[in-house]
Input
Amino acid sequence: MKVLANDGLEAQGIHLFEQAEIEIDVNKKEPEDLVQTIGEYDGLIVRSRTKVTSDVIEAGKSRLKIIGRAGVGYDNIDVDAASKNGIVVKFAPHGNTNSTAELALTLMMSVSRNIPQAHVSLKNSVWKKKPFRGSELSGKVLGIIGCGRIGQRLAQLVRGFDMKVIGYDLFPRSDSRIEYMSMEEVLAKADYISIHAGGTTELIGGKEFKLIKPSAFLINASRGVNVNEEALYQALKDRAIAGAGLDTYIDEPKTEGQEFNKKFKELDNVVLSSHLGASTNEAQEKTGIEVAEVVIGFLKTGNWRNAVNVGEEVDVQEKPTWPVFIYHRDKPGVFAHLDNIFAEHNINIREISGRKFADRETAAAVYMVEGKPEEELLAALEAIPDVFCVKR
Output
């Protein structure tokens, strides 16, 4: 097997592929070359730079089995095209949890204390103090929009500041660190608002800025699309909010050295960084290991962990499933016989998982099936000579 890591891969990830005896290629291929050569690979790993278009997927569909995204967002991958061609898409979302939460906290502190502005002033040989009077985090209210992995980690990090943490999430979790309430309440009550949502729709625009206190700060280290940039610019310019710390933007530059032409750079109450949420040595290492593990897991054992375009949660209209527990002799041909019995009873098999027992001669299989298994089916399965017991 052969995998292309087109945006590079950390040494630990490369080592995992070598251990699994999968050839790993880390030589960058530009778009035209990628289309020409992708058919040589069983797997493709990318970060945000490589665009996995439908052309790439069509060119590789005869051999390509999996596309792995080393990171959280996978909007640079044509997931629909991958699904149509039977190619699994996986991501590695955990590696940058801490690094992004720490960056959000850093932006909160930087914009509160005007640290970048003071730094620039001193670099230009000008000593100033009065213009840079700031605000403390201690005792303030932090509002988190999107309380998943990163939001929860940020809530943990600010405990040392004695901040009260309130939050909004579509699916609130049981977390004693966060008091959940409506988004409108979070926006109205928070002194700091940090966004950690997925980034598919605009969350904060002109209407929402009217709810935010003039003394509050907005932090966005998630996705640029989450915030209406024109509305934010106007709110900052009019001092309708105190300030903002931004790490992500709509239509970000794609190459090093490219011009950054957002109007935010004209303002003195905003701190800007260039999408650095995952840009730590530790995050890159963790992400490289995670994406290697999920790609190897699929190629070697069919493990579906971290898949984004397959699984029971993809289609909410799917039929209900029932488990059938089968204890059998571990020998060739047993599964074929079992499958035939299910087919004869017009039962569709959704998923099979199996494990051997310690004696290595017997095994257990759990069949997840569509259609409630009736006694007649169970009796037919149990009648197979190599089947010891069937339960539902």
About this structure: The mean pLDDT is 92. The radius of gyration is 26 Å. The first strand starts at residue 2 and ends at 5.
